[in-house]
Amino acid sequence: MLEAAKRWARLLKRDVVALYLAARSPLTPWLARVAAACVAAYALSPIDFIPDFVPVLGYLDDLLIVPLGIWVVIRMIPAELMAGFRAQAAEITAKPRSMAGLVFIIAVWLAVLALAGWWVLRRE
Questions:
Q1: What is the DSSP code string of 30-98?
Q2: Are 85 and 77 in contact (CB under 8 A)?
Q3: Regarding predicted confidence, which is higher, 74 or 55?
Q4: How far apart are CA 116 and CA 98, in angstroms?
């Protein structure tokens, strides 16, 4: 069972890189490119919406949200095109990082903090 989980994790990592490549390819349909860019940016970002130290919820994105996003986007990309992206991803040894995902997540957290501050100040 542990080997199956490790294999699943390796395939997820490969598919994230494949989505990164799909988002940059002009051959990918535009809606799939946008969705692939969003999923890859989030999955490759060095921080998460919900930090992993938060009990239960911290791992929710790693176990549910990211795999679900990958699954949805893979369905949007033609199979033969996705096979090519997977083959390219398998050859990449260094996992790319997403600074766009980092900036987006920081912007979301800042917006949440600003809204919370506004709400608190309004209540006084």
A1: HHHHHHHHHHHHHHHSSS-SS-TTSTTHHHHIIIIIHHHHHHHHHHHS-HHHHHHHHHHHHH--SPP--
A2: yes
A3: 74
A4: 27
Lookup result for tokens 């050859």:
91
CA distance 91 to 3: 22
pLDDT cut 90: percent of the chain above it: 42
Write the single-letter amino acid at 32. Answer: A
More confident: 52 or 118? 118
The residue assigned the tokens 């799939």 is 32
Tokens 């542990």, located at residue: 2
The average pLDDT across 62-68 equals: 84
Q: Which domain holds residue 17?
A: 2-123
Q: How many structural domains compose the chain? A: 1
Q: Are 75 and 67 in contact (CB under 8 A)?
A: no
Q: Is the distance from CB of 61 to CB of 45 less than 8 angstroms?
A: no
Other beta carbons within 10 Å of 120: 9
52-73: b (≥16 Cβ within 10 Å) or e: eeeeeeeeebeeebbbebbeeb
Which of 101, 97, 27 is CA-nearest to residue 69? Answer: 101
